[in-house]
Structure formats: C-alpha cells, structure tokens
Amino acid sequence: NFILEMKVILSDSNEYTIKPLNKVELDKKMAQEDFEGKLYKNLFNLIEGNREVINNAKPNVSKNSAGYYLWNIWDGETFDLNKLIVGSQGTLGVITEAKIRLVREKSHHDMVALFFKSWDQLPQVTKAILPYEPESLETFDEETLKLGIRFMPEIAKRANMGFFSFLAQFIPEAFIGTRMLGLPKLIILVEVAENDDKEVKRKVKNIIEAIRPFNVWHRVIEKDSEENKFWIMRRESFNLLREHVGNKKTAPFVEDFCILVEKVPEFLPKALKILKDNGIEANIAGHAGNGNFHIIPLMDLREKSERDKILVVSNKFYDLVKEYKGSITAEHNDGIVRTPYLHKMYNPEVLELFRKTKELFDPQNIFNPGKKVNGSFEYLESHIAIE
C-alpha cells in the first residue's frame, strides 16, 4: 500500500517501471508484442479466468505473506503489479528502485502497559482498544519477563545504565506484580500517538475506560525512558539467553503465524504443547491487534536429532494453523523453510496458479529458486545452517 512505483529487472534482462495502471493503460500495455506486453496479457488472463478461485483463496486474517498475492493485483479498475512483486521474495525479478509513500511520525505519544493474569482476556481487551486507533499493540509473555529478571544486570549494562538505576525503573511494575500475586502471563504495550498532546491524553483516558470492565492491571507511561525499558527488556532478554545456552541458537521456522485474535487463547496452548512435546524451548512476542505472534525456538542445530525436529514440529504446527484457518506466515514470508507447507493453506488449484505465475515471470527459474513454488523438504533440510 506504500509503493507508488518500482523499477524491476525481469527475466528478459530489461529494466521496467512498474506502476498502477487504469484499464485504458492496461489495454495499451497488453497490446505490446514484447516480453512486458505478453506478461501483462497472460497474467491478466490468468487472474480473470480464475477470479473466483483466487478470491476464495485469500486468507481471512489481518496479515499474510504466504504465496503470491494474486487477489490484490486487479480490482476491476486498477491493475498494479507492485502488489504482486512486493512480497514475492525476489522470485519474479530484481527490484532496483522504489518510490515509497512515507508517513510522518506523530509528535506526541504515551504508552499504556497492560498486565494480564491469563491469555483468556486478550480478544475482548484488544477488541475494546482497537476503536481508539493505537499506533501499536505489542506483546511479550511471562517467559520473556522471567528471562529479563534473570539477566537484569546484563540488560542494565547493555542499556548503558547502572544496575540499581535500571532496577528502580521497574518498582511500579513490582508493586503491580505483588498485587497480582505473581508475574503476569502476558504484557501488552499499547502505544498512542497524535500530533496534539491533548488528543493523546484523551485517547489514553478512553482506552483505560474501555478496559475497566475486564479488571486488567495497567500503567500509563509518559516518559520515553520508561517506555524504552520495556523494549530493551523484550529485545535483550532473548539475546542474552542465546549467549548463555551453549551451542543453541534461534531457529525461526514456526515463528510467524497469524490467526483471528479471538482464537489466540485457544490456539497458543496447543501450539506451545507441540514444541514442549518435542523438547524445544521458546518464547513468545508479537502483535496483539493483528493476531500475529512470533514463537522463537532455541535449538542446537549441529545435532541431527534436533534438525529432524524441524520437519516434525512444522508439520504438526501448520496443521494446527490450518485447523484455525490462519496464515503460516504473516510478515516473514515463505522462504525455503515454509514453501513446502503452502499446501496447508492453499488447495492444488491455487498452488498451480502460483506455479504458472512464476513461469510467466521467470520461465527458466533463475530468480531465487526453491521459494514460493517448487520447494521441497529435501531442499529445506539441505539448507539448514548447522554452524
């Protein structure tokens, strides 16, 4: 939605300017007898001839990066190849230049930190907050918080602060934990931003009123330094864990699912059980308003027994995502590790349309092979980084 136009080198080795076309411009483009004209014509015919199949294939989630965005290209008035090429992971051409629409950062912002005893209230609270258009609803779980406490001295050092000064910043949260009789299972950071500070304060007040019926513990945070402590805790706790677990490292292979927000409390325990049953340690962070969460496993991939878990866990995990009609990747895309699982989201007819799309752009399969189409489990296993 932010790409105005791009320059792209296609498989005929020529560079083309890609921008939205109205029907008159599209007809003119399709009348060309060169590679570009034939590409537009054949892709238009593919979309028009399979419109119902394509529209039915679009996942009912807030974010999706799986497959090719065939449903976004042609809306009956505008034909925009940018919407296909962006997110195609370099499998259709090489982007050399992009003209992007920017968003001006708002000048005033506050944060409301929410502390939950369980994941159960997440859907209702999120639904109550979203009408007030927060900038973000970022989350991290109890395990991340425990890591933050465990590595507090080292986190303080990375934040260029003394241990006691950094620790003192969490005194208000410690009081909340005492009143909650334990650590929260989930923390949501609600960021509110506007160009008028009075409007920020009004929105914060409305959000607090909206969540009042749910008896969720909360704090309003107005200082940048206090906001930053949460981001530092979230980022550095897992980085430090990696440094303290010997040869284990992050293995992001089921780390980017997206489902309907109301299904998250039901989905997550089942997803985490799959990891636990296979002896995989992980933590959770993500975007509460989108139902998009990142589960980051830690594994020693030098061990074949550990590498073997990737296919076993992925198969079960993506079966679960399929059961909840979600997306196997909201933001991070398919890559080598998820392309073999696209059949969990799309039927054979849709997968064939993806294959034909790739063939129209790249008949010799020279652009980033093994991603989006023509992936295999053998190719996946052969590309697992051991060191």
Distance between the termini: 38 Å
Approximate helicity band: 40-55%
Q: How much is the average pLDDT?
A: 93
Q: Could you say which structural class the secondary elements and strand pairing correspond to?
A: alpha+beta
Gross CATH architecture of the largest domain: 2-Layer Sandwich
String of helices and strands:
EEEHHHEHEEHEHHHHEHEHEEHEEHHHH
Query: Main β-sheet, in a few words?
Result: 8 strands, antiparallel
CATH fold type of the largest domain: Alpha-Beta Plaits
* Estimated radius of gyration: 23 Å
Principal-axes geometry comes out as globular
Number of domains: 3
CATH hierarchy, class of the largest domain: Alpha Beta
Unreliable residue runs: none
Q: Number of DSSP strands?
A: 13
**Which range does the strand content fall in?**
15-25%
Q: Helical element count? A: 16
Can you describe this structure?
- The chain is an alpha+beta fold and 387 residues long.
- It has three domains: 3-100, no CATH class; 108-243, Alpha-Beta Plaits (2-Layer Sandwich), CATH 3.30.70; 249-382, 2-Layer Sandwich (Alpha-Beta Plaits).
- It is built from 16 helices and 13 strands.
- The protein has helices at 23-30, 35-49, 51-57, 82-85, 122-129, 142-150, 152-158, 163-168, 171-180, 197-211, 224-243, 264-277, 304-323, 335-338, 348-361, 377-382; strands at 3-9, 15-18, 21-22, 78-79, 94-100, 108-116, 136-141, 186-194, 217-221, 249-250, 257-258, 281-287, 292-299.
- The strands form three sheets. Strands 6, 7, 8, 9, 10, 11, 12 and 13 form an eight-stranded antiparallel sheet that branches. The protein has a three-stranded antiparallel sheet with strand order 2-1-5, with no helix packed on it. Strands 3-4 form a two-stranded antiparallel sheet.
- Helix 2 (35-49) packs antiparallel against helix 15 (348-361).
- The mean pLDDT is 93.
